[in-house]
Amino acid sequence: MDTNTQTSLATNPLTGMTLSNEQLAEVADLATRQLNIEHEIESLESALEAKKESLNQIQQSLLPEAMLALGMQSFKLNDGTCVLVEKFYSAKIPDEMQSAAFKWLRDNGHGSLIKRNITCKFGKGEDEVAERIKSLLIKSNVVPEDKTSVHPQTLKAFVREQSEDGKPLPTDLLGVYIGNRSKVTPAK
Question: What's the sign of the alpha-carbon dihedral 137, 141, 142, 147?
């Protein structure tokens, strides 16, 4: 008996090719390795999220509160690492508050923050219609997508500016959060 002969286990119905135990074992092994790596990635992503949450807790709560309780805005460690507490601003208009938030912005002279995009989708071969729509959007039979928004960075800058100028803001409408955050800079 030839020891190099491969034992046939199955035949591929599509190609008619005879498959050996070794070939099938390799495919099974690769599939198992893929599943193991997918599970490992899920675990790593979960661990990363937990680490980010821990960092956020220290960075935005524990360290700033501890330093501010001692009356400190900055601190230098023995190794030269600098620790600083600074104010930070965050804002995101909640979806359910968009209409009211846009009204407030417009009514209070800040309508320029609002951006509006109207887009139309055309199918293959509809270039001529698209050209006509550019000049006659309302008269066409195409219903455009209409999206109104405030860019997150623009809103954040606006909130910071208004807050620092002592101007009142509807914090619920604009999803405003103002807090302290620590910044740790390693020594050079």
Answer: positive
How many helical (H) and strand (E) elements, i.e. helices and strands, does the chain have?
6, 7
Domain boundaries, the chain: 8-72
Nearest to 114 by CA among 162, 158, 150: 150
Nearest CA to 134 out of 123, 116, 119 is that of 119
Q: Kindly report whether the global pTM for this prediction surpasses the value 0.85.
A: no
Structure tokens at 26: 């390799």
Task: List pLDDT tens digits, range 62-121.
Answer: 999 999 999 999 999 999 999 999 999 999 999 999 999 999 999 999 999 999 887 777
| Alpha carbon distance 17, 156 (integer Å) | 63
Tens of pLDDT, residues 4-21? 544 556 887 788 788 888
Residues 182 and 68 sit within 8 Å (Cβ to Cβ) = no
